[in-house]
């Protein structure tokens, strides 16, 4: 049901402040594009964020690949998020017991909870992982996604694993606001999860290392997902990142408009 509602209508269904603000932002900016900035130099990451900033709703980071990480990088990224009106998603894929992920999320060098609006986790350890992250994230008004499926060939996250992941998300809706998923699952009464999908590309279908790229229309219109996550399709192979981001923004948004108008 919620696949046919606008992002703005759906923002009213959420109690989590980040989910609400994120859906409003998508509508305001007419963007369901997230750029996956897998770059290992601070200056390159900042440059990319500034270039694609006008076209994205969400910047997805892997902060632990940045060789010259420092607090100034975080300060610059959060300033760019303000300047261009986007949110930040550290794709940390937590995977340990509740007590350990609490430490990994809130402390260490990266202090992810202090700057990342959204993060994510595997369900392998059981629901204690959500309890741990929620304890740190909820007081800061953060939100998280569960990895219900992955985009890569041979992923073990499928079938019953995915079904159980959705059940846990329903139990902790105040903090788990959506999924990394390849399709939208059956909505139950009261569900409104945000579906984010990596493995999106318009020019190639595979990277030779298991990644499988789908067209934005297939992801948003056919499969009912909400956010397209695009990395190398935008910045890889010497591409003009701003130009490509604009192209993906339009493709993603058109597919969404087509979906809610059908
Ligand atoms: N990513 C995936 N697949 C997944 C999950 C995360 O590709 O199932 I969970 C990440 C990895 C990379 C980005 O940061 O999304 C995709 O980048 P490319 O568009 O360059 O493949």
How is the secondary structure organized here?
Elements: H1 7-11, H2 17-29, E1 33-37, H3 42-52, E2 58-61, H4 71-84, E3 87-94, H5 98-106, E4 118-121, H6 128-137, E5 143-147, H7 160-171, E6 176-180, E7 194-197, H8 216-222, E8 227-230, H9 232-235, H10 241-260
CATH architectural arrangement: Alpha-Beta Barrel
| Biggest pleated-sheet summary | 8 strands, parallel, barrel
Per the CATH scheme, the topology name is: TIM Barrel
- Average pLDDT for all residues: 97
**Coarse morphology:** globular
Widest sheet, order of strands: 1-2-3-4-5-6-7-8
Distance, first to last CA: 12 Å
List the bound ligands. Answer: 5-iodo-2'-deoxyuridine-5'-monophosphate
Give the structural class. Answer: alpha/beta
CATH classification class: Alpha Beta
Q: Strand fraction band? A: 5-15%
Rounded to an integer, what's the Rg over CA atoms? 17 Å
What do you see in this structure?
The chain has an eight-stranded parallel barrel, surrounded by eight helices. It has ten helices and eight strands. It is 40% helix and 15% strand. It is an alpha/beta fold. The protein has helices spanning 7-11, 17-29, 42-52, 71-84, 98-106, 128-137, 160-171, 216-222, 232-235, 241-260, and strands spanning 33-37, 58-61, 87-94, 118-121, 143-147, 176-180, 194-197, 227-230. It has one domain (2-243, 250-261): Aldolase class I (TIM Barrel). The model has no long low-confidence stretch (mean pLDDT 97). It binds 5-iodo-2'-deoxyuridine-5'-monophosphate. Residues 36, 38, 62, 91, 147, 150-152, 180, 198-199, 211, 229-233 line the site of 5-iodo-2'-deoxyuridine-5'-monophosphate. Pathway: Pyrimidine metabolism; UMP biosynthesis via de novo pathway; UMP from orotate: step 2/2. This is Orotidine 5'-phosphate decarboxylase. It catalyses: orotidine 5'-phosphate + H(+) = UMP + CO2. The active site is at 91 (for ompdecase activity), 93 (for ompdecase activity), 96 (for ompdecase activity).
């Amino acid at each position: 049901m919620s696949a046919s509602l606008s992002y703005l209508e759906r923002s009213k269904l959420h109690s989590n402040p980040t989910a609400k603000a994120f859906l409003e932002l998508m509508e305001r900016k007419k963007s369901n594009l997230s750029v996956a900035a897998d770059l290992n130099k601070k200056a390159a990451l900042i440059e990319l964020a500034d270039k694609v900033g006008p076209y994205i709703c969400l910047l997805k980071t892997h902060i632990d690949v940045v060789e010259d990480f420092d607090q100034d990088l975080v300060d610059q990224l959060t300033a760019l998020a303000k300047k261009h009106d986007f949110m930040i998603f550290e794709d940390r894929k937590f995977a340990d017991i509740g007590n350990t992920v609490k430490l990994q999320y809130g402390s260490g060098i990266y202090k992810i909870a202090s700057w990342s609006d959204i993060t994510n986790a595997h369900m392998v350890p059981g629901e204690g992982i959500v309890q741990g992250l929620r304890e740190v994230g909820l007081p800061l008004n953060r939100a998280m996604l569960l990895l219900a499926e992955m985009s890569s060939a041979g992923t073990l996250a499928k079938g019953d694993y995915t079904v159980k992941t959705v059940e846990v998300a329903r139990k902790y809706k105040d903090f788990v606001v959506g999924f990394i998923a390849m399709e939208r699952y059956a909505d139950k009464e009261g569900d409104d999860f945000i579906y984010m999908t990596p493995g999106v590309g318009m020019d190639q279908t595979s990277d030779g290392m298991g990644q499988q790229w789908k067209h934005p229309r297939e992801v948003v219109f056919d499969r009912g997902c909400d956010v397209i996550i695009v990395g190398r399709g935008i910045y890889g192979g010497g591409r003009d990142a701003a130009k490509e981001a604009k192209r993906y923004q339009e493709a993603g948004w058109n597919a969404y408009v087509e979906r809610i108008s059908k």
